[in-house]
Amino acid sequence: MIKYIYPDGSHCYRALHSTHAVFRDEENRLIARARTAEGNYYEFEIVGFELLETGERYH
Q1: Where does the pLDDT of residue 59 fall: very low under 50, low under 70, confident under 90, or very high at 90 and above?
Q2: How many separate domains does the chain show?
Q3: What is the extent of the structural domain holding 12?
Q4: Secondary structure of the chain in the HEC alphabet?
Q5: How many CB atoms lie within 10 A of CB 46?
Q6: How many CB atoms sit inside 10 A of residue 14's CB?
Q7: Count of CB atoms within 10 A of residue 19's CB?
């Protein structure tokens, strides 16, 4: 599982297999790209994420 941390301090959890990429956009924002159950991709801004198996948090 991956825990995504949003800019407002809230968070959500996603299964590892639904994660496609985490990258910085042109404005240097941290962006996550994930896949929906229907197979479509969507992007959202995050400030960090945690790989729950390892307990490491990346900013």
Answers
A1: low
A2: 1
A3: 2-58
A4: CEEEECCCCCEEEECHHHEEEEEECCCCCEEEEEECCCCCEEEEEECEEEECCCCEEEC
A5: 21
A6: 15
A7: 17
What the block records as the tokens of 25 is 């956009």
Which pLDDT does position 25 carry in this prediction? 97
- Residue 34 in tokens: 């994930």
Those residues whose C-beta lies under 8 Å from the C-beta of residue 5, and which sit 6 or more positions away, are 11, 46, 47, 48, 49, 50, 57
Contact in structure between 43 and 32 (CB atoms under 8 Å): yes
Q: How far apart are the first and last CA of the chain?
A: 17
